[in-house]
Amino acid sequence: MILCRFLPIAIVLAVNVAATRGDVAAALDAKISNPTLAGIPLRFELTISSTGSDHLSFWNGGPGTYPPGNNFVANFVNAHGASRRVALSNGQGMVGTGYFIVVERPITFPVAAPPLAPGDYTVVIESVESRRPGTNEVLWPAAQSPPLKLTISENAKERVDAVEAIRNSKDPFSRHVYFAYGIDPAVEDLLKRAGNTDPATALDAVQRLHALLYLSSDQQQLLLKAMQQHVKDQPSNLSLISSLHNLIAVVSTNSGDVEIPLALAGGDEVIGRRDGLAILAKVPHSPEIEKVLLEHIRDSDGDARYWAFRGLAYYGNAVAIPSTIAIVRNGPGTGDRIEAINALVLLRGEPEVRAALLEASQFSDEAVQETAKQVLSMPPVKVQPTSAQSAPSLH
């Protein structure tokens, strides 16, 4: 039973914060839900309780009455020390009509993670802190569970039984897991329809697939095939192609496998490079991805350069500063200089970046000059450069 009280109903455009003030803190505990099988999404039962002077609260957009899984991540480490950090989910609504729930007692609720390969793992679940923009006010607190040990086994029959059990469960969480992690047969049908030669049919399928968080390697290949076919047959259909890029970025991130976009970005075909870089621009960066993006800010193709800059800008990587400043100063052209300046927005608080922007604000090229002035006029910011840790990656 959830022991809490409801605050008045409201309508919002997008909320993922708690309506709290003052001292907000929490304790987090986690339990693994059996079975733990290869090819089956991992399911956890989390219990969070308030330990501060103010109660926790969260936006409840349904269909359940518990916190959204998006507030949590799991850190997996296998027996060889390779690690993987993944976002969790539970299908709770993040937008639309809903209400705040103030948690006055510990609350227990489900979350899911993508499947793992067979083996032994240690996992720690984290609650990710959020603060009110421009302030130090904590809206949702950071917390960490004690480490859990789990073993992922390979058993085809048990896997079939587990899928059937999820399918037969009618609760909102099970329905979310069934589709979002690609085990619903309807996903296979939609993946095939995504490659349909009729643009409207394909776009409808891709939009339905945007509820996905994970696809197996074989399923990702179907998605890749659809994207390549549409890029070849209807390159001007930007809505469809962009939707496919976004979808591949999400499932690549959650599967811990970015081999598809890396292979595309490293190819000789211009269109493939553009697609690969567009996807890599939207996934969390590892040193390998940073290296690829940096290499392509001097790509011979303007669209490829654009996506390389977009990726570096989105994550504010300090590793990009020297190469990006070099393009601000030396071109090769107005468009590249403007993209390089935009790529430095999140790093504008760094002294060497500010110096380069001040220099660019005096250039004779009015478009470059104006862009630099706009960035310089933004409020000061100091960000922690985003970069993956040096630990080996867990796939």
Which characteristics define this entry?
13 strands, five-stranded antiparallel sheet, disordered C terminus, 14 helices, Immunoglobulin-like, alpha+beta, 395 residues, three-stranded antiparallel sheet
Structural write-up:
- It is a single chain.
- 39% of the residues are buried.
- Strand 2 (26-33) and strand 3 form a beta hairpin.
- The protein is globular and about 65 Å long.
- Helix content is 41%, strand content 20%.
- The model is unreliable at 1-21 and 383-393 (pLDDT under 50).
- The chain folds into two domains: 4-153, Immunoglobulin-like (Sandwich), CATH 2.60.40; 185-376, Leucine-rich Repeat Variant.
- It is an alpha+beta fold and 395 residues long.
- It is built from 14 helices and 13 strands.
- The chain has helices at residues 156-168, 172-180, 185-193, 199-209, 217-233, 238-255, 259-265, 270-280, 287-296, 302-315, 321-330, 334-343, 351-360, 366-376, and strands at 4-12, 26-33, 42-50, 56-60, 72-78, 83-87, 96-103, 107-113, 119-127, 130-131, 138-140, 143-144, 148-152.
- Strands 5, 6, 9, 12 and 13 form a five-stranded antiparallel beta sheet that branches. Strands 1-7-4 form a three-stranded antiparallel beta sheet, with no helix packed on it. It has a three-stranded antiparallel beta sheet with strand order 2-3-8, with no helix packed on it.
